[in-house]
Design goal:
The chain has a single domain, classed as Up-down Bundle (Ferritin), CATH 1.20.1260. It is built from six helices and no strands.
Amino acid sequence: MDYLKRYAYLERACMRTLAGWLPGVPEWDAKNEFGLHIWESADAADHLRGRLRELRAHQPERNLSHGLEKVYKELDYAQNTAEVIATVYLVVKKGLLEAYRHHPDITWSEFDNPTVKVTETLIANTEKQVAWAEKFFPTIEANYPGWEAWRDTIAGLLAADGGVSGAE
């Protein structure tokens, strides 16, 4: 259940960060994709939270690690489009994608089929989001020198807290 709490919380973090940045992003292609991805992240978080309610976890944001809460908050401090894309998509979303793909390996799939089904449904959209970022990012990264430091900061915070699953 803790895995699902983390997944839902990180989806909300991505949604919140993208929504905060949407008005200020100068690249029209990114702005357009951010709008769709905000909705998809909200939908993913809702699916995960729905499964948590079925498992009787009615306060899924309770007792989360301080490290995960720090990642959630720090994402907001990106300074430009490159930093947002590098952290939200190439760190967090990429980590979520791997977690969704490997979730059947870390749970008792035979007994937890509903949770496996939920994570499987999230893979397609998350793959598209990461693929978009990997294709779009090279077109803007040269315009924003220094973005690597922020990516490394967020990746380090997430890794220090055990990665997306909390157990890595």
